[in-house]
Design goal:
single chain; alpha/beta; 12 helices; binds adenosine-5'-diphosphate
């Protein structure tokens, strides 16, 4: 069967009338970020913040209208709310749901209503708002993919929990979530009231990932506003509290999606993961620059895949060079947080969903992650800005 085109989708949406304006959702310019790819359709329906979740029937009508088209395999339709004036919420109220015309995935948990908790009208900017009951949110970022950012984020979160901190791990990589694999989570989060999702608990940490909610075969064609609303929901509509620290596993890179997160999420600080190669360090510099631009404190740089320890003879090899991250950190006036060795056990335990900090807690590798966790715990306990030094003469 021929796949539906963008024009087909717009025609179908043109038949959906917004009761508020009396116009079609297309004419009312409510359809945002439309993506049509190989029969998979994604779009956001933008409504005013005041309408919020009441627009759900309209979202559903729009999704159903597209799903009924021949040549459409899946529809992902998300409600986003634009902000109006200073008196309304500084956080967009969002609601999202999935409609799949083949009926194979109907993840009820995803159709929950957004709540606008913790919005205070006098906050200077959205980035000043936290998640109630969560003391600190820290981002684990990288300038590019494949440097071990998610591996570091998971083991760091488990290390922080070992130190006695109540810890959460939020997988903010909407396009390529890793936490389901790294923690071997296949179940879906539950909700008692249909509004707030319960995070999934593993090894003493609470965790949430878009990968728990959408099937692996659901196309990741969300863009711009949809990514933002999914992340907002994973922060605000999940029962995180009480937490001492929430570790955010950022999407790799320093593009718009990352910049938006750095601007919108009230981060206590950011950690940049890099390998020792020059090229990765150039990317790490971009990461540092991004957080500095958004005034997020840099907790430091971690060098991952630092030294290779031969499993047979125990000798050390610096496959990607060595010490580059430490030098870059010094050059850029950022703290250096430590080195994680390149060892097969880290990859194997990651792939098996049993991170090394819990599966081999006494190993040298686990100790490297624990040392990192101790550094980070100390930094987030300290005030963000150092008090001025008083010099007595
Ligand atoms: P990213 O999140 O930066 O894309 P991942 O955490 O998914 O990277 O890691 C990429 C691959 O490298 C994974 O297969 C992971 O198991 C492996 N890996 C990460 N860190 C190490 C390490 N220190 N030693 C060995 N393998 C590692």
């Amino acid at each position: 069967m021929a796949k539906a085109t963008r024009e087909d989708v717009l025609t179908a949406l043109g038949r959906v009338i917004d009761p508020e304006s009396g116009k079609s959702v297309v004419d009312a310019q409510m359809v945002q970020g439309l993506v049509v790819k190989d029969g998979n359709v994604g779009f956001a329906l933008e409504v005013s913040g005041a309408r919020g979740p009441q627009a759900e029937p309209l979202r559903k009508a729009a999704a159903d209208s597209v799903a009924a088209l021949p040549g459409v395999l899946s529809v992902t339709a998300v409600l986003t709310a634009h902000q109006q004036g200073p008196q309304t919420s500084t956080r967009p109220q969002t609601q999202q749901g999935h409609s799949h015309n083949h009926g194979a995935h109907n993840h009820g948990a995803h159709n929950h209503t957004s709540h606008n908790r913790g919005a205070k009208p006098h906050q200077p900017s959205p980035s000043a708002q936290g998640i109630p009951g969560v003391a600190a949110i820290i981002a684990v970022a990288s300038g590019k993919g494949g440097v071990g950012k998610s591996t570091v984020a998971v083991n760091l979160a488990l290390g922080l929990a070992k130190l006695g901190l109540k810890t959460g791990l939020l997988d903010a990589d909407i396009y390529g979530p890793s936490v389901p694999r790294l923690l071997h989570i296949t179940e879906k989060p539950q909700s008692d009231d249909g509004k707030i999702l319960k995070p999934i608990e593993r090894h003493g940490i609470k965790t949430m990932s878009i990968g728990f909610l959408v099937g692996e075969d659901t196309p990741m064609i969300w863009r711009g506003p949809m990514v933002q609303s999914a992340l907002t929901q994973m922060m605000n509509d999940v029962a995180w509290a009480p937490l001492d620290v929430l570790v955010l596993d950022m999407p790799p890179g320093t593009g718009d999606a990352q910049l938006t997160i750095a601007q919108r999420v009230p981060l206590k600080g950011a950690i940049i993961v890099s390998t020792p190669q020059d090229i990765a360090l150039i990317d790490a510099r971009k990461g540092l620059a991004m957080f500095r631009k958004t005034h997020v404190p840099i907790l430091g740089i971690v060098e991952n895949m630092s030294v290779f320890v031969c499993p047979d003879c125990g000798s050390e090899h610096h496959i990607f060079g060595h010490g580059g991250a430490r030098e870059t950190a010094a050059e850029l006036d950022a703290p250096f947080l430590g080195e994680i060795p390149l060892v097969r056990a880290i990859r194997e335990t990651s792939d098996a969903g049993t991170p090394i900090v819990v599966s081999a807690p006494d190993s040298r590798e686990a100790e490297a992650f624990l040392a990192l966790a101790r550094e980070v715990a100390q930094k987030i306990a300290a005030p963000t800005r150092a008090a001025p030094k008083i010099i007595l003469e």
